[in-house]
Amino acid sequence: MAEEKPELTHIDKTGAASMVDVSEKDTTSRTAVARGEIRMKAQTLRMILSGNAKKGDVLGVARVAGIMAAKRTHELIPLCHPLPLSKVSIEIDPDDTLPGLVVTATTKVSGQTGVEMEALTACSLACLTIYDMAKAVDRGMTIGEIRLVEKMGGKSGHWRLADEPDQGVE
Amino acid sequence: MAEEKPELTHIDKTGAASMVDVSEKDTTSRTAVARGEIRMKAQTLRMILSGNAKKGDVLGVARVAGIMAAKRTHELIPLCHPLPLSKVSIEIDPDDTLPGLVVTATTKVSGQTGVEMEALTACSLACLTIYDMAKAVDRGMTIGEIRLVEKMGGKSGHWRLADEPDQGVE
Amino acid sequence: MAEEKPELTHIDKTGAASMVDVSEKDTTSRTAVARGEIRMKAQTLRMILSGNAKKGDVLGVARVAGIMAAKRTHELIPLCHPLPLSKVSIEIDPDDTLPGLVVTATTKVSGQTGVEMEALTACSLACLTIYDMAKAVDRGMTIGEIRLVEKMGGKSGHWRLADEPDQGVE
Amino acid sequence: MAEEKPELTHIDKTGAASMVDVSEKDTTSRTAVARGEIRMKAQTLRMILSGNAKKGDVLGVARVAGIMAAKRTHELIPLCHPLPLSKVSIEIDPDDTLPGLVVTATTKVSGQTGVEMEALTACSLACLTIYDMAKAVDRGMTIGEIRLVEKMGGKSGHWRLADEPDQGVE
Amino acid sequence: MAEEKPELTHIDKTGAASMVDVSEKDTTSRTAVARGEIRMKAQTLRMILSGNAKKGDVLGVARVAGIMAAKRTHELIPLCHPLPLSKVSIEIDPDDTLPGLVVTATTKVSGQTGVEMEALTACSLACLTIYDMAKAVDRGMTIGEIRLVEKMGGKSGHWRLADEPDQGVE
Amino acid sequence: MAEEKPELTHIDKTGAASMVDVSEKDTTSRTAVARGEIRMKAQTLRMILSGNAKKGDVLGVARVAGIMAAKRTHELIPLCHPLPLSKVSIEIDPDDTLPGLVVTATTKVSGQTGVEMEALTACSLACLTIYDMAKAVDRGMTIGEIRLVEKMGGKSGHWRLADEPDQGVE
Question: Can you tell me which residues form the catalytic site (chains A, B, C, D, E, F) (predicted)?
Fold first, then answer.
């Protein structure tokens, strides 16, 4: 069966890394949603949330950090293309069962390549910022389950993690 | 019992975020080690590793991305102090049981504040770079278990995740 | 009268900051002009200007700083969109009545959102650079009256500060 | 009278701009406080403040923007030295008499050169961020009176704007 | 003969530098190829190449540095326009006759202005990175012959260094 | 003779790139001088110089670009350490025999590692900026002979290119 020949697109035939040519790809509206979590002690979560109720700061700062990081994705990830992002939003929800916080980032662009990396980067930096602001009280916090959950636009069309056979519930 | 009063150090009494004053802290040698993983299909791991054997590229690019990100941590994480890092190294090891790759970042500074965020940021960006370079063949890869595993220097001395009561084996 | 319901566009219904979605806005040619001033001792102004006659440097460096800052506006202002600026120019004129310098920045883009922030940022950084280069002789310099003076393109059409009822002469 | 010979320190004898040599200056603790304001319609101020009461966002985002800008001052202002800032804080207070908001930035370093530019830059970017977030409802807002109000440490010792003969009340 | 009146486009009539207005230029596909070299001791070249055979690192890191620098060209070169690069690739070839390495960078964009500066910047930074990684063994390495070798698209059409009368073989 | 075993310091035993540990190195005053040139048509040189006499701009902008690039060296060159530069200056001299311009950059730091890369980067970016500003009139300009000419401080003491056996006159 010859059809199964996936390739690492960022590596050319001679093995060198390069920023792939997207100039022939269509300019379409593209959206990506990524999600991740930061697990912590129940007490740390309470502190952040009560802090938040009064002050809005840990989660507010994390959202800003995530949004700003999305805009710098191409500076951080070597082979990412610069993209004129048309939207970035970050939602942070508490989850007592972790216990911890779930970060969801949505990015959008009208461009020739997708915005998955921007969403994943936003997610990661929002989590890292929460870690930074709470690390004095809980050094063992863990960032995890950062992954793409949905992707629209571009040649590959609509993709959802939930539809993947082996990935189970996201 | 008055001793249990942990506080979110980046939030002042009025609830505003600020970059805390470290000017009175000792300048000491500080080291941090962070670790994370990226889980993928077994086939993706083989492709990266065989690619790597011949070419050195996915892992090589990810290492560079992690090192460069460590140096920009203070630009990305709003309340982090700028630090004159004296060392950054990234180790990436395959783990067939994930299957996937385990990224370990070590950072060092002689400074007034710790280098945990630099190690965690290096780890995250190395994982994101691996995702970027292999996403064309495996969109469902997941970044996880990013956490501090060791920390030396500074007022709090030597800390190891493995010694924490609830954290189990890292 | 239901029509008066201005809203802070960068804050969503839940109160979280986000980079607003501009993907449905038209791509049109947009221009913005911002102006600001830096007031100083008459002696400082003379020194800068005579320095400039011979050397071209304080004002030349300030112009470069303003232009470069315009290009980084989206990195500095959290909810600004990245924009492919097609023009930035800075004009710096002495004003003996201040005494001081008046900085005018003009920015242009063909895009889905305006370039006001780029013009205002260019203006501010040009003023800050003048402060930096002359602060050894005049620490009390004051930057002021930084505002948008004109805006063309986009849904809101042509807007001029001079036409605003309460703003008087700019 | 030979004593009156102030010089523009960033310009060498040949008239070229350069980053002056601070290597012989003492490493001392240095602090700077800068202040600025953004004037707006009374209605805009109410909207921001009530928004803030519920959500904490405009002022919260502006504080983060100011802090992050302080850390990048040397990238933005051509002849500024990079500095390992040990503290940055931003305070934003409403002032009904403007009407508007007053932004105060405090920066600290243990270094060979002062942190005035960092405080002034933080102030300017916090004001610009407020402008950005409220511009949809009030395009005529004006940023002004950005100046150094206090400076401690370094050869010149303690300086306060309030003590300057011609500057009046700050 | 009035036709010979070339002008420095980044300087306006009053002598001030500005980022020229490209908003009226056509959006076309544009490509640039730049080349440069780094000369070194024969022994250094062997060390890099043998290192490379086993490890892939000096040249791999230099390629990544060149690609990442291309994306930041507009931040580094004051009057360059920001461009949404659609492709960057770097090729590094040994040349025993130098002895040294020859770096070729290719950049591509669909935009209103050319990508020469991006290709030249990529080339320069790849060479500087090689210098950095080998300087401990050969401080006298020299970077040279960095120039544009080909340019396609835009008003001026196809240009090749090899076709220039005085430039001889490149 | 076992003494001849130079090694590429940025590559560890396993072949991976890393930012070498400088934490045990002495903090000393370190200076570096780098030089480079940009060759052009005689007519282009005259245009830049006459432009300069009246306006100061091409060379002025190039100096600023070089100084600003020096401060960002560690962001651009993957394995460079961040350094608190205490001085950067750029001198640009015409040379009719090239014909072209000779750029000399001097950098200084009190730190644990040298400032060669900062001087070389400043030199390269000053040349690239000259290219950018004059490319409309002379596309064939060539940047060359970028190399370290002097280095003081650190373990290796005083080094001058002119003293090197094979390098001849610099």
Answer: 132
